[in-house]
Amino acid sequence: MEIENKIVSAVVLGIKTLYGQDIAPETVQLQKTKKEFAGHLTLVVFPFLKISRKKPEDTAQELSLIHISEPTRQEAIS
Which helix (H) or strand (E) element contains residue 13? Predict the structure, then answer.
């Protein structure tokens, strides 16, 4: 779907911007969000922990913040 492609592109760009690493779009994993949480899709951050060298929560937070603070990237996920 189109939204998934936009999210994948935004994550690839975010990893490059934050950590200086190029990743293949195929490494970005999206899953349906569990019913007990808000949202429709969840980004699996475990494949990026070696690159970020941080906890899953911190990696996810950094990826989300970069898109909020930079309008061109925010457009990529909206």
Answer: helix 2-19
